[in-house]
Amino acid sequence: xxxxxxxxxxLFGIIENQLxxxxxxxxxxxxxxxxxxxxxxTQAKAVIAQCVAVEIFGxxxxxxxxxxxRYIKNLKRLPKEPIE
Length: 84
Hints:
Helices cover 76% and strands 0% of the residues. It has 84 residues and is mostly helical.
C-alpha cells in the first residue's frame, strides 16, 4: 500500500538523520547493538521506527512536544515493543 510505503520512507528518513547527526546518540548506539544482535540494516531501522512512531503519534495525540526521555528509554528496551 502506498500510504504505508510513504510512512516507512519518512520514518526511515528520520532515523537516517538521527544516525548521520548522532542526535540523539542513543539511536546510533541502538542501531549498532541491533546489528550486532543479527538484525540487518532494514530490520534494525524498522525496530527503531516503532519508537519514532510512538513519539510522533504522542505529539499528535497529546499536543505535547517530542518526549526525548521516553524515546531514549524505548530505544534501550528494543527489541521489546516501545511503551507509550
